[in-house]
Amino acid sequence: MKPLVFITGASSGIGQALALRYHQAGWRLALVARRVSEMQAWCQQQGMSAETTRCYQADVSQVDSILGAAHACMTDMGVPNVVIANAGISIGMDTSIRQDLDVLSQVLSTNVVGMAATFHPFIDAMKDRAKTNGSASVGTLVGIASVAGIRGLPGHAAYCASKAAAISYCESLRGELKPQGFSVVTLAPGYIKTPLTSKNKFPMPFLMSADDFAHQAYKAIEQGTSFKVIPTPMAWAARLMRILPDALLDRAFKNQPRKHRAP
What we know:
This protein is α/β, with parallel strands linked by helices. It has one domain (4-252): NAD(P)-binding Rossmann-like Domain (Rossmann fold, 3-Layer(aba) Sandwich). It has 8 helices and 9 strands. It has a 7-stranded parallel sheet with strand order 3-2-1-4-5-6-9, with helices on both faces. The protein has a two-stranded parallel sheet with strand order 7-8. α2 links the parallel β2 and β3. The mean pLDDT is 91.
């Protein structure tokens, strides 16, 4: 039987591009999103058959919702070989405004708790499958973080905090699960041309298409890369940002436009 990949946030952007890349590679697809009708229409346009592709409606910020989709996937299609926790949101915030504390909670629930909830139901199932098959390789868990998780950016407090947490969470998970045969991959996209970034009103260096990102991400996942910033020029910029003194970082971002707040 063809291998199976489970992808959240698959109705647009990076998730959709990853779904297409895995489809082209011959994988079966379990696709999850809140906007399931849009996802189903796109699958039909791509010629994806019901035998190889299933769409599930879920909101990763609601734990029981994503758990339900995961269990439905395992009932319908079996245990995935690769699980990609891609669903995420990016909303600017201002800590001086009361309602933006709710924005922070929403972003953390989606980008961090949602990632953990996406992985949770598959861990024991993957271990049981490996034990039954006598396989040393258990499965691959992929967390889509962001280069924004490396340093905090003005107006991006919620998003940067959530992606920094996602990076650390996946690193912790890798330490826990690698001895058991799991591969845990953390991908940190730079600026990718998606609906998420289309509203940004500030420069986006090294902007790349979602399809190009998906191609590089697929290779990194297949190789079991522990952490990768995509694209490569952004990886070098990320290394510089890590070591840049605070005074220089503050000066660099002094006049940068803030991330837009939600209406």
